Amino acid sequence: MVENMQEKRLKVRNNSIDLVKWMASLLVVSVHSDAFSDISPLMGHIINSVFGRMVVPFFACVTGYYLTEYSVEKPKMWLKNLKSLFKYYVLLSVIYVAWDAVCHHFSGMSVENIISTGGTCYDLTLVDKVADPAQNNKVKNNKATVRNELDIKSSTLNAIRSGMYMVVNNGSLKSVFQKVPVKVAGKTGTAQISANEPNHALFVSYAPYDSPKISVAVVMPNAFTSSNAASLASNVYQYYFDEKARKKLLKKSATNPVSNSRKY
Predict the structure, then answer these.
(1) Are 204 and 149 in contact (CB under 8 A)?
(2) Which residues contact 20 (CB under 8 A, 6 or more apart)?
(3) pLDDT exceeds 90 at position 229
């Protein structure tokens, strides 16, 4: 009779702990996704920064409690549980290593580069050539090597290129790039944060449109509109393709970004 009562109490206690563990798991997701901040910054701070800080110590206490209980009362069960945890550790480590390898494989590749080259991905390079004065300025040239070729239909690439061309040359950005001596293709974008912060401004592009030489990607935090990012890209293209414009650009000073009608 007493043993049955103890088992029932233990079951109820374990169910309660499992419920709190489930709630703590949701808090982990909330912390990493910064949930509730869009609804209310204060609510997000309380949930993620106050209650979220209790999650790791809670899991450490629960894990320590059960491991201690197994080690004292059921040594074989503790060893079995440890083996199970080790299997999960190995499995997650393999997944992590594979994911890291995939991310590393695609590091240094930009979408606009792939589009402009017709699906050819190049390794990232920073040095064009190296000259050694001690050896009569003998030059060692450095060229980007092809990493791989993406299987993309030409019709798909042509449609994307055409759309990027129209964004810059037939839309509202036409006046922004009118001083650039070559045709530019690009795409604007904004990343929304919350109702209380300005949007991030984005712009990816390449030029010249018919025979691409360089690509420019601009990310401007809290810059309100993507036209501000496009304006910076326009200056980069002017500097690169127009020698006369370089001195004028270097004399310019920074100005406040153009905001939209929304108040912050």
Answers:
(1) no
(2) 58
(3) yes
Report phi then psi at 141, rounded to 5.
-80, 145
CA distance 83 to 89: 10
Place of tokens 């530019």: 184
Model pLDDT for residues 173-195, shown as the tens digit of each residue: 999 999 999 999 999 988 888 77
Three state DSSP letters for the chain: CHHHHHHHHHHHHHHHHHHHHHHHHHHHHHHHHCCCCCCCHHHHHHHHHHHHHHHHHHHHHHHHHHHHHHHHHCHHHHHHHHHHHHHHHHHHHHHHHHHHHHHHHCCCCCHHHHHHCCCEEECCCCCCEEEEHHHCCEEEECCCCEEEECCCCHHHHHHHHHHHHHHHHCCCCCCCCCCCCCCCEEEEEEECCCCCCCCEEEEEEEECCCCCCEEEEEEECCCCCHHHHHHHHHHHHHHHHCHHHHHHHHHCCCCCCCCCCCCC
Distance CA 149, CA 117 (A): 10
CA distances from 169 to 116, 131, 210, 241 (A): 17, 40, 13, 17
Asked whether 220 and 232 are in contact (CB, 8 A), the reply is: yes
**What residues have CB less than 8 Å from 178, skipping those under 6 apart?**
none
pLDDT value for 108: 45
